[in-house]
């Protein structure tokens, strides 16, 4: 069945929010071109107080694009970015797109093993990386050229000078930001030495691939979600339409979410540019740095995850920092506790609403209205130009009756084009008619508000990051003496915590602490189990499959 559903949810939209958005007619590059034309002298980027205007950003992007072109980057080539939040990240992102090439975002906290898998899969020959992690990329996959970025080069002049002082504390601060990167090219030298790319260089088309974003999807096997310029532009436009009170050229967006994550990428790299906002960049979330920045350049729009809101609001209240400039805050990636909403809104006076999405949808599909019609505890209603269906998880051709729980299907311009070089995986989630299987079981009330009640996929969400049990289990099974392993998520301080149950070979002297320590060689810190429990056996189905849900239930029962 491919019914076109009614849209009762539109009556709950904030005043001024349209049921449909206009079809994007240009590429992501046009977002920056338009912002530079409209808001050239306005601040585009703020990094510890060092600012770049929109005109300056457009010029840097043109020069970086020419530098990358000289390295052989052309239309359709993949370029790996392995960077924290910094001005160079924004420049590199748009420079790659200007050439018609494809950005591939990577987490700079990944281990060499995790990066190697993705670099081999997408085959990028050029990588732009934080100099501290350059050794993890050099010689991996098909990478031939590594361009190293020194974060200190984007700092204000006084801060750069201070980092040269021969003091232990200063040396430690410098070491946290930069490190020697032999056998690499210098990003700053390449960009400084390049003329702007010729204006008549062919521009990308809306249907061209813009981004490969790695995700486990519904299976947990990391694969690249293929997102086009149209997908990402549409989601930025949907976000703009969702908050009609925004003022183009006058907002300040805080990038506390990582730009390499789909959530941070859309809200900060594309949406913020589309409204000509000043983007304040933080390499990592740090309460003190955010509150210091709030005194210097007060935020007006903050996308984040629940733990960030709770920590910021608590610290601001304790230290007397004014956050009443934040009119709008959007929460995602994990459930938003009502207590966090109350705390945040009591401190700021602004609205905090929850949304829902996934990498395959660029990423946002649902949101609570930025209006009194919002309903805390739900993930909201479908965005403009977005349709939803609830179906039988075992037979997605059968729609659920009104009021029944079912797997959420979504359709809209933000839905991805498929998985990179994985047609079978694509066919499992993209159904005829353009419907995407989310793998989440939800309920929908008469007004279209949706509540997530279960996950078909056994994804673990910790601190706003996705952790796939299969990745953790693979790392555990590489440890000598670990015979069987199961990784699950249990409720914790940042949404969920990764907990593992393992069966050890007889006579093995390894204990939980040594197993956790060994995991750090293969997994980013947030993926390492917070707790390892040694068990005699794991529960299995009749066909021998480990029953993760039963493992989780036992761990919860045992505390």
Automatic annotation (TrEMBL):
CDD domains: FC-FACS_FadD_like
PROSITE patterns recorded: AMP_BINDING (PS00455)
Domain of life: Bacteria
Positions of the AMP-binding enzyme C-terminal domain: 471-545
Transmembrane annotation, as ranges: 260-282
InterPro entries to which the protein is assigned, alphabetical: AMP-bd_C, AMP-bd_C_sf, AMP-binding_CS, AMP-dep_synth/lig_dom, ANL_N_sf, ATP-dep_AMP-bd_enzyme
Residue ranges constituting the AMP-dependent synthetase/ligase domain according to the UniProt record: 33-420
Membrane keyword on record: yes
Pfam families in the cross-refs: AMP-binding (PF00501), AMP-binding_C (PF13193)
GO molecular function terms noted in the UniProt entry: acid-thiol ligase activity
UniProtKB keywords: Ligase, Membrane, Transmembrane, Transmembrane helix
PANTHER family with a match to the protein in the record: LONG-CHAIN-FATTY-ACID--COA LIGASE (PTHR43767), NONRIBOSOMAL PEPTIDE SYNTHASE PES1 (EUROFUNG)-RELATED (PTHR43767:SF1)
Protein name: AMP-binding protein
Organism of provenance: Micromonospora terminaliae
């Amino acid at each position: 069945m491919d019914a076109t559903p009614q849209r009762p949810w539109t009556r709950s939209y904030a005043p001024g929010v349209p049921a449909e958005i206009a079809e994007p007619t240009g590429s992501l590059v046009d977002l920056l071109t338009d912002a530079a034309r409209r808001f050239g002298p306005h601040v585009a980027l703020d990094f510890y107080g060092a600012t770049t205007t929109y005109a300056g950003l457009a010029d840097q992007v043109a020069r970086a694009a020419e530098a990358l072109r000289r390295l052989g980057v052309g239309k359709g080539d993949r370029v790996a970015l392995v960077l924290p939040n910094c001005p160079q990240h924004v420049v590199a992102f748009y420079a790659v797109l200007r050439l018609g090439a494809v950005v591939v975002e990577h987490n700079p906290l990944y281990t060499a093993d995790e990066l190697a898998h993705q670099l081999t899969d997408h085959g990028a020959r050029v990588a732009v990386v934080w100099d501290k992690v350059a050794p993890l990329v050099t010689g991996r996959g098909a990478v031939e050229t590594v361009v190293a970025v020194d974060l200190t080069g984007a700092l204000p002049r006084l801060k750069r000078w201070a980092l040269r002082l021969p003091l232990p504390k200063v040396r430690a601060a410098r070491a946290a930001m930069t490190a020697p990167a032999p056998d690499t090219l210098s990003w700053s030298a390449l960009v400084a030495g390049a003329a702007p790319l010729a204006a008549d260089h062919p521009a990308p088309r809306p249907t061209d691939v813009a981004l490969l974003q790695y995700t486990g999807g519904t299976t947990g096997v990391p694969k690249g979600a293929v997102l086009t310029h149209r997908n990402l532009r549409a989601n930025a436009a949907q976000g703009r339409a969702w908050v009609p009170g925004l003022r183009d050229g006058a907002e300040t967006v805080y990038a506390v979410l990582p730009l390499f994550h789909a959530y941070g990428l859309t809200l900060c790299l594309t949406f913020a540019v589309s409204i000509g906002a000043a983007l304040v960049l933080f390499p990592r979330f740090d309460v003190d740095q955010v509150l210091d920045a709030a005194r210097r350049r007060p935020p007006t729009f903050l996308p984040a995850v629940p733990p960030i809101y709770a920590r910021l609001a608590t610290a601001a209240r304790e230290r007397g920092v004014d956050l009443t400039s934040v009119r709008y805050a959007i929460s995602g990636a994990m459930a938003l506790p009502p207590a966090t909403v109350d705390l945040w809104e009591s401190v700021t006076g602004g609205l905090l609403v929850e949304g829902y999405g996934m990498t395959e949808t660029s990423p946002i599909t649902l949101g609570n209205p930025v209006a009194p019609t919002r309903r805390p505890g739900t993930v909201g209603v479908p965005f403009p130009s977005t349709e939803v269906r609830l179906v039988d998880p075992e037979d997605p051709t059968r729609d659920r009756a009104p009021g029944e729980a079912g797997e959420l299907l979504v359709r809209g311009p933000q839905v991805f084009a498929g998985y990179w070089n994985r047609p079978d995986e694509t066919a499992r989630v993209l159904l005829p008619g353009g419907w995407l299987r989310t793998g989440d079981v939800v309920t929908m009330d008469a007004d279209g508000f949706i509540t997530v009640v279960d996950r078909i996929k056994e994804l673990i969400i910790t601190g706003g990051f996705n952790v796939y049990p299969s990745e953790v289990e693979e790392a555990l099974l590489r440890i000598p003496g670990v015979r069987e392993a199961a990784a699950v998520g249990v409720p914790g301080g940042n949404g969920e915590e990764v907990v593992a149950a393992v069966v050890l070979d007889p006579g093995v002297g390894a204990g939980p602490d040594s197993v956790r320590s060994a995991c750090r060689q293969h997994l980013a810190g947030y993926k390492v189990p917070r707790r390892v429990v040694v068990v005699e056996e794991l529960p299995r189905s009749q066909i021998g499959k480990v029953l993760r849900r039963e493992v989780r239930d036992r761990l919860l029962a045992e505390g």
